[in-house]
Design goal:
Number of domains: 3
Number of strands: 22
Helix content: under 10%
Distance between the termini: 59 Å
Strand content: over 45%
CATH class of the largest domain: Mainly Beta
CATH superfamily of the largest domain: Immunoglobulins
CATH architecture of the largest domain: Sandwich
Length: about 400
């Protein structure tokens, strides 16, 4: 009986060790805390400094501050840091607002948001002094022996004139082509979304009375204008226009311009430039090599291009020319990155590579790995041409 009890105790301890190992296998999220750099009442049009403290053992790569779910400040860290204390600024507007900070580590693991709730008071209105009416002079009292003395008449009090309000200014700065870089190739009549990222560097608040409209060139869009999203001064906005490539081959350029509610142009014109090509060109004669190239591509590892990253693994022990691949594609968008499991193949001597999602519906890639195995260039469906760098 004693040996049987010892056996059950050993089995129970083993199960506890396995359970603890399973609990510790999940990737740890970065930790984030926020605090205001100053105390006291906050009024509109005030620069509010938010101190963000982020920690992660693998390194913090990016910190974002949002106001009511709109990005107002971004800090990209290169190289990544395990502990970061970053002051971030938000231009206040009256009302109740929620500021939230999140951090992304080098493994694209996103922290839980750290929030702070603010009540912003309207700016004080200048007080106008009331006008004082002159007081009527009393009648003099008659005296039998002398004339009455004259009574002083009070003068009206000057009323201060309130200052004339200064109008806000409209300034727009181009930040980046989020999608469809210049020269991206599309098939005839193929649809795509063009996104420009801009920043409000003026003092006016953008809203849906601002228009982003077609200005010249080839329109490639059913709508001639879209409404600008609500954007506070200092914040960034993404301007998205749904487009369709022309039916004929060639290079096409369209220009777009932001306009204020009074019709005045804001900022520079922004452009979209694409190439329309034959998606099924006639096959070219294939040259028969006399011998295999000496350089063999090594595709295994992490590849990054902007918001996209792909982790590839070549089939173990492949000794042929074409080898199968597996991996994971990540679109690092805020607040929830998109993940796709991949499968594909590579010619390890020519560098020709293609892969796609194991579950239908995700993006596919076709391109070439350079001879030094440092870059991978090609077309990612629904996005366009990308060049990945090996990390």
């Amino acid at each position: 009986m004693k040996k049987q009890n010892q056996r059950w105790i050993a089995i129970t301890l083993l199960m506890l060790v396995i359970a603890l190992a399973a609990c510790n296998s999940a990737p740890a999220k970065p930790t984030v805390t926020v605090s205001l750099a100053s105390s006291g009442a906050i009024t509109e049009n005030q620069d509010v400094i938010v101190q963000v403290l982020a920690n992660d053992n693998k390194g913090i790569a990016r910190i974002e501050l949002t106001a009511d779910n709109t990005i107002v400040s971004v800090a990209n860290l290169n190289p990544a840091q395990k502990s970061v204390s970053a002051p971030m600024t938000w231009k206040s507007s009256s009302g109740q607002h929620t500021l939230a900070a999140r951090a992304l580590n080098v493994d694209n693991v996103l922290s839980d948001p750290a929030t702070v709730l603010l009540n912003v008071a309207p700016a004080p209105v200048p007080t106008v002094a009331p006008t004082v009416a002159p007081t009527a002079a009393p009648l003099p009292t008659a005296a039998p022996t002398q004339a009455p003395a004259p009574t002083a008449i009070p003068q009206p009090t000057a009323v201060p004139i309130p200052p004339t309000p200064v109008p806000c200014t409209n300034v727009m700065t181009f930040i980046a082509d989020v999608t469809v870089p210049d020269g991206t190739a599309w098939a005839p009549n193929q649809g795509f979304n063009k996104i420009w990222r801009v920043r409000n560097d003026g003092s006016c608040v953008w809203n849906n009375t601002y228009q982003f409209a077609f200005a010249g060139g080839t329109q490639m869009s059913g709508a001639r204008a879209i409404a600008v999203p609500n954007t506070n001064p200092g914040a960034m906005a993404d301007l998205l226009v749904t487009m369709v490539a022309p039916a004929s081959y060639g290079t096409f350029i369209g220009s777009w311009q932001m306009h204020a509610p009074n019709g005045v142009a804001v900022g520079p014109q922004l452009h979209v430039s694409i190439r329309v090509i034959n998606p099924n060109p006639p096959p070219q004669p294939t040259a028969i090599p006399t011998q295999q190239p000496v350089t063999r591509r090594n595709v295994t590892g992490m590849w990054v291009s902007g918001e996209w990253s792909v982790d590839l693994t070549e089939a173990f022990g492949c000794a042929g020319t074409t080898c199968s691949l597996t991996g994971k594609l990540t679109h690092g968008i805020f607040p929830t990155p998109e993940l796709y499991d991949l499968a594909g193949s590579i010619n390890v001597y020519t560098g020709a590579i293609s892969f796609g999602p194991t579950v239908p519906g995700g993006p596919t890639f076709s391109g070439t790995v350079s001879a030094d195995s440092r870059t991978m260039s090609g077309t990612l469906s629904s996005v366009g041409h990308l060049t990945f760098g090996k990390q």
